[in-house]
From TrEMBL:
Keyword hit for Zinc-finger: no
Keywords for this protein: Membrane, Transmembrane, Transmembrane helix
UniProt keyword Cytoplasm, yes or no: no
TM segment ranges: 311-330, 336-355
Protein name: Disease resistance protein
Pfam family, one: DUF3754
Entries under InterPro entries matching the protein: DUF3754
Amino acid sequence: MEGKDKKKKEVIRLERESVIPILKPRLIMNLANLIEHSTDRAEFLKLCKRVEYTIRAWYLLQFEDLMQLYSLFDPVQGAKKLAQQNLSPEEIDILEQNFLTYLFQVMDKSNFKVTTDEEIDVALSGQYLLNLPISVDESKLDKKLLKRYFAEHPKENLPDFADKYIIFRRGIGIDKTTDYFFMEKLDMIIARIWAFLLRLTRLDKLLAKRSRGRHKKDPKKNDEINSEANQDDLCVERIRLENMELSVQNMMSKNTIQEPTFDRIIVVYRRASPKSTERGVFVKHFKNIPMADLEIVLPEKKNPGLTPMDWLKFLVSAVVGLVAVFSSIEMPKADLWVNFAILSTVVGYIAKTYFTFQQNMAAYQNLITQSMYDKQLDSGRGTLLHLCDDVIQQEVKEVIISFFILMEQGKATLEDLDLRCEDLIREEFGESCNFDVDDAVQKLEKLGIVARDTIGRYYCVGLKRANEIIGSTTEELVLKARQGIKDS
């Protein structure tokens, strides 16, 4: 949309992410280039490798347990492996709950968050490319697995559907689409005329009274109320056709709509099955999903049909057309051309509603295909391996940045260190995140290269001493051995 258009701004306010959106090689090299002396730079690069190798080793056993457990609940081969184990149903229940416990821990370490009802309401409060009502066929989903897990591991702000499937999200992006949107603009005009008629007949107040008792808080209004209390939150503007100014130029030209996206989404669920041996747990990984089109990642979707509003349009059009025709026939001089015009208008409007639905269905099928081929990153074991690597990369980045700040800027309290790390990321890399300093400092203390003084400030040892404390890792010894073989 053109900047001069008078349109209502719709800003979505979201909590800043904890994930550090910087590639690790770039992070390490940029930090190394900030070090003045070449000898210190070499020691720093060696320390970064040793930190990564050590953290990877710490998580190795936990990740192996996760992968072994998932092999029993893999939707493809899990049933055969479970049968080979000859386990009782009670033992299988324990194992699947252990798997979910490991999975949620990895999700948390990867900075994935469970979507709440409020976030879902914000996401679905508008339309983007998907213009059909999509719902889940709950009869095809298991309701015991996740319900049992959350009964043993209570969490706040769980969505209403948490007993059937769970949606994890991480990262915020922006998606833009430019097109003429002729049918969407026509629908927008009809919707505005319909709203005007409701206001004219005062039916809008009657409908508002009926829905007031069950109406939830408007998430957008709630965002505006909380805007002052969350100054550090991430604000992303949503640009929709519904907020566009009506003009001939806007109707006939291309327009750009904009929608915030969830950078990564992981959906976890189990299909309902009468067979007790069917214990497969589905883990699907998507990227760059527009918030308003979040329905495309839902499991076991029903085929969409005409909406109640579409049926109402059909009914009202038919009634209005018949009344107009009969009224014309009862007149002393019935004009056939007037009747033909009325019928043509009614039939044309009904046909338009039907063909709009067909166009939306085609767009829906295209989005589903795109989500399967372009937006679905992986599923099952591949997703879990990706998550495990994510954990390591995030932990390494947090530890390296924290150590670098203490090394370059000296002693700091936990709060000061947190602010300094966020400032460094913002100034050197142009990125913003909610830095997890607590976890990073705990790991630095565990490595033995950071300690606290008598008044509680953190400080680090020298680079050379830090490398001596960690010592040569197994990977370094293997590389030296391999190099020795090549040299000989």
